[in-house]
Structure prediction request, 198 residues.
Amino acid sequence: MGNPVYWGLGTALAAALAGGLAWTVASGRLGRSAPYVVCLVVFATLWTAWAYWAIYDLQISLDRGDKVRLASLVDWTSVREGIRDDLKAAYTNKIIAPDPRVQALSQAMSGAMIDRMVDAQINPSTLSDMARSGFGGSDPMGQIRYAFFEGSPLVFRMDIGPEGSATDHQTIYLLEWNLGWRLKRIIVAPYLLNQPPR
Prediction:
């Protein structure tokens, strides 16, 4: 990732677990439960490594504009739906008019425009272009400010933003495991949604 401390901590943690486990097993402290503990630690380590590999694969595929790979790494229907919800919450629901009928019509028209825009713009090509132009395509892993499980071992969170950026300037990617890790949700950085229209 952008800050090698993430990989360093991960490697150190895995080494510490392996070393501690080897010492415990060798000293006979676990007794008959040793094989089960070994299996559990190995599984947890491999599971975590798989999640980190998934975000690496995603970032590299975005950087290279690999449409074929992105088709399997991203749940486009779910991602589009989430972005639609964010945009509608930020813009459509803020439309206020003196006449309730005018307000309802304006909100419906705004929602329809957002639906068409998201369908047209959120695809492998445009997402790849945004990723490469946004935070420095020369180091795609340098965009990652945070990456770890979020509330469940089946959900992995990745915060994307420039180095030193505030939390509200970071876009959140949520990957979900369903027989493989896939990007399910993109939560747009709040500051982008709070900007006044030009």
